[in-house]
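debug: dumping io for the single-chain case to check the tokenizer round-trip. Nothing else runs in this session.
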Amino acid sequence: AAPAVAGVAALVYQAIGGRVLQPNDISSVLLSGGTTNFDGDDEEGRVTRRIYAQVDALGAVKIALQRTQNT
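debug: decoded output
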């Protein structure tokens, strides 16, 4: 998952025109723009019944653009 998340962070950086974001800002954008994944529905293997964050590239870019346009 780490390479995929790094790729989404790079897309966010490119979308906002290379403006400098702090690590906390990037984390917030990725989490706010993401979706949730419930482990416990119709799947095979071990079911944990936990909720995990799932990165959403388009959602993260939209959130980043909204935040940078408001500053």
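debug: round-trip ok. The radius of gyration is 14 Å.
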